[in-house]
Design a protein that fits this description.
Blueprint (H helix, E strand, L loop, with lengths): L2 E3 L2 E4 L11 E5 L6 H8 L11 E2 L2 E2 L5 H7 L2 E2 L1 H6 L6 H7 L14 H13 L15 H13 L6 E4 L7 H16 L6 E5 L11 E6 L2 E7 H4 L2 H8 L3 E6 L2 E6 L11
Parallel strand pairs: 3-8, 3-9, 6-7, 7-8
Antiparallel strand pairs: 1-2, 4-5, 9-10, 11-12
Helix pairs in contact: 4-5, 4-6, 6-7
């Protein structure tokens, strides 16, 4: 699969399968094509070449809008597209139809009950009536995650969910993601990030992307190695795990990008 825009190759040679029950981490430098790949996987961007099959549907041969309701895509664009004066409860409700406003659809008592339950599970039971725009950054991310779960998705795509969060908010979000990863009822999940520290325990697979190409993909323990991550980010790092969480630090004595010429 490839994506070319104005003669520039954004993605090329992508061959990627996400299987049932898998939890994927997708890492790479800025501009490497991570978000573009996620948009293609969520049927938000038609590739220039190749075939994309998502939840049994082939992009270009199906109603992509219907598929998007089954494959929520949580990103900063989602955050910016939602009216800040909506209540947190209503923001969660919109996830049922992948809409931006509740007035476009009808919701019954079961829908309202599910939205309340998702907010409660996120630790935001008391925030349901508060305007979305006055919530903290961390609270908004938790609401977006609840919104994504509202439709009982078949695939969950998270684009840098911890970006911009302070330490406490990041850890609360990671805890929520870890609970999702551990739940057998959770559909396949893909988490895009720049930082391995933002990955929750329970990630089963990982892929590294650089310059629009996947440089490695497979079981997380085999992909997230010091050598592979160093090569992908062009800086020598040591990758480790503590308590089920991934860690990364600059290799001792070498904090400058290596010369690979």
């Amino acid at each position: 699969m490839a994506v070319v825009r104005e003669g520039l190759s954004i993605l090329d040679g992508i061959d990627w399968d996400v299987g049932p029950g898998e939890r994927w981490a997708l890492l790479g430098p800025n501009g490497s094509g991570k978000t573009t790949l996620l948009r293609v996987a969520g049927m938000r961007l038609l590739p220039t070449r190749g075939t994309v099959e998502v939840v049994g549907e082939t992009y270009g041969r199906c109603d992509a809008r219907a598929v998007r309701r089954r494959v929520p895509f949580v990103s900063q664009n989602t955050l910016r597209g939602l009216r800040p004066t909506q209540s947190a409860h209503d923001v969660v409700l919109t996830g049922r139809e992948a809409a931006l406003e509740t007035w476009w659809h009808r919701f019954d008592q079961d829908d309202h009950r599910r939205a309340d339950e998702l907010l409660e599970a996120a630790g935001l039971a008391a925030a349901g009536d508060r305007p979305f725009g006055v919530l903290s950054e961390g609270e908004r991310q938790q609401v977006l995650l609840a919104r994504a779960l509202m439709a009982r998705p078949e695939l969950l795509l998270l684009d840098e969910p911890a970006a911009g969060l302070d330490l406490g908010a990041r850890e609360r979000l990671v805890s929520s993601l870890a609970a999702l990863a551990a739940d057998p009822a959770t559909p396949p999940v893909v988490v895009v990030t720049h930082h391995v520290e933002e990955l929750p325990p329970g990630m089963t697979h990982a892929a590294l992307i650089r310059g629009g190409r996947m440089t490695a993909a497979g079981p997380a323990a085999e992909v997230l190695t010091s050598a592979a991550v160093s090569s992908c980010f062009d800086v020598e790092v040591c990758i480790g795990r503590v308590g089920g969480r991934w860690t990364a630090r600059a290799a001792a004595g070498d904090v400058n990008p290596p010369n690979r010429n």
